[in-house]
């Protein structure tokens, strides 16, 4: 029998642990994930979210260790996406008298589109409440954090914010709380999660944080990862920082290379940043996954991207990274396109165009070199990058 874990009196974690998940929509989840659901025992038994469909058995087993799952009165669906709602059809069969609470109108529309008309749905909006006994749950819609239907549920009695995808991490652990895992580890996972899932919606996150500012809570129970109980101020502060789209004086040099000329240029650009006193990181796309790089992009002001020309275009690895980054829409960055070529600088030119589509600040043209780079060319590149970056670095001081 799988065990539920009591997180506060009469409030239990009853989710599923996905130890072997390694890829979530192109985002590498090297530490697995969890699909968190929470059971509240009151006059009306309430389940906050379900789980991904393959983990319904775990969810039901954990609930059955506490109460008869058929006695559930309410199921709150904070988010339509199937890693949260996939267990709803099974739970609706097991608990046929349960009413499913979801956001109106987007949650109702989304759940109906996914699962048909057979679910007993009730839509709620920001400010709506649900009395379940000595507890009253209230709802705050958080559209586009990170779907239009997204909302959070607030339990004032227990001082818990059931935060949906906000403040989550893809992280599988036998531990359930931040202080059991350790703040450095969980912040690394929270940063990668924000960068790869939430970053495009920074303005929406800021709006959500303002909407939550009037609520008093000492625990954040997200839909993925561990539960925040000892470091709530820290994760709130990080979300304020990340959503502000204010990067640090930090540089990333991201590249792929064929015959090492673009690689030599990448190393020289990195050295130029170091000479200026700007922390820098060199990332070869052959050995660094794009989702790990995005966790670094979240904090970096300067993004240098390099590619040689291959078959009249940039390297496929570079194209993949740029496509992925453009979708996550980091704002306020300074771009440095560079690369080498033989017949024509089509590779670095396409890098330039891709960074331009990201709305990065750019030089007049990419930094390029034909054929094999030499010492004189590298020295010239070094100086040109310093001259270009100095324009922005001085303003940032």
UniProtKB/TrEMBL annotation:
Superkingdom, taxonomy of origin: Bacteria
CDD domains in the cross-refs: flavodiiron_proteins_MBL-fold (cd07709)
UniProt cross-references to PROSITE patterns, sorted A to Z: FLAVODOXIN_LIKE
Domain Flavodoxin-like: 251-397
A Pfam cross-reference name: Flavodoxin_1
PANTHER family named in the record: ANAEROBIC NITRIC OXIDE REDUCTASE FLAVORUBREDOXIN
Similarity comment: family membership: In the N-terminal section; belongs to the zinc metallo-hydrolase group 3 family.
Name of this chain's protein: FprA family A-type flavoprotein
């Amino acid at each position: 029998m799988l065990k539920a874990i009591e997180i506060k009196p009469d409030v239990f974690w009853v989710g599923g642990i996905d130890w072997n998940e390694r890829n979530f929509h192109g985002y590498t989840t090297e530490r697995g994930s969890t699909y968190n659901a929470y059971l509240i025992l009151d006059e009306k038994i309430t389940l906050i979210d379900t789980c991904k469909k393959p983990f319904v058995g775990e969810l039901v087993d954990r609930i059955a260790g506490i109460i008869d799952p058929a006695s559930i009165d309410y199921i709150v669906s904070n988010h339509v996406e199937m890693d949260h709602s996939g267990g709803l059809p099974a739970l609706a069969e097991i608990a046929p008298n349960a009413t499913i609470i979801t956001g109106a109108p987007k949650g109702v529309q989304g759940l109906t589109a996914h699962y048909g008309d057979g679910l007993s749905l009730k839509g709620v909006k920001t400010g709506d409440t649900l009395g379940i006994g000595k507890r009253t749950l209230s709802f705050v819609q958080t559209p586009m954090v990170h779907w239009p239907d997204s909302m959070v549920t607030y339990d004032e009695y227990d001082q818990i914010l059931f935060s949906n995808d906000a403040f989550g991490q893809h992280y599988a652990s036998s531990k359930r709380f931040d202080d059991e895992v350790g703040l450095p580890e969980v912040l690394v996972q929270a940063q990668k999660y924000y960068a790869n899932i939430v970053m495009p919606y920074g303005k929406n996150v800021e709006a959500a944080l303002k909407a939550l500012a009037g609520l008093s809570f000492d625990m954040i129970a997200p839909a993925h990862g561990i539960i925040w109980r000892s470091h709530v101020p820290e994760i709130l502060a990080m979300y304020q920082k990340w959503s502000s789209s204010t990067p640090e004086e930090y540089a990333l040099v991201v590249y792929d290379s064929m015959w090492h000329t673009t690689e030599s240029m990448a190393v020289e650009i990195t050295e130029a940043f170091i000479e200026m006193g700007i922390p820098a990181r060199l990332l070869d796309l052959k050995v660094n996954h794009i989702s790990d790089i995005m966790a670094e992009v979240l904090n970096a002001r300067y993004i240098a991207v390099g590619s040689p020309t291959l078959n009249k275009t940039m390297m496929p690895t570079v194209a993949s990274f740029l496509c992925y980054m453009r979708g996550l829409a980091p704002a306020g960055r300074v771009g440095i396109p560079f690369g080498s070529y033989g017949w024509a600088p089509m590779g670095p030119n396409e890098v330039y165009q891709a960074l331009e589509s990201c709305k990065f600040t750019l030089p007049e043209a990419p930094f390029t070199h034909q054929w094999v780079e030499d010492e004189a060319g590298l020295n010239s590149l070094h100086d040109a990058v310093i001259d270009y970056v100095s324009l922005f670095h001085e303003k940032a001081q």
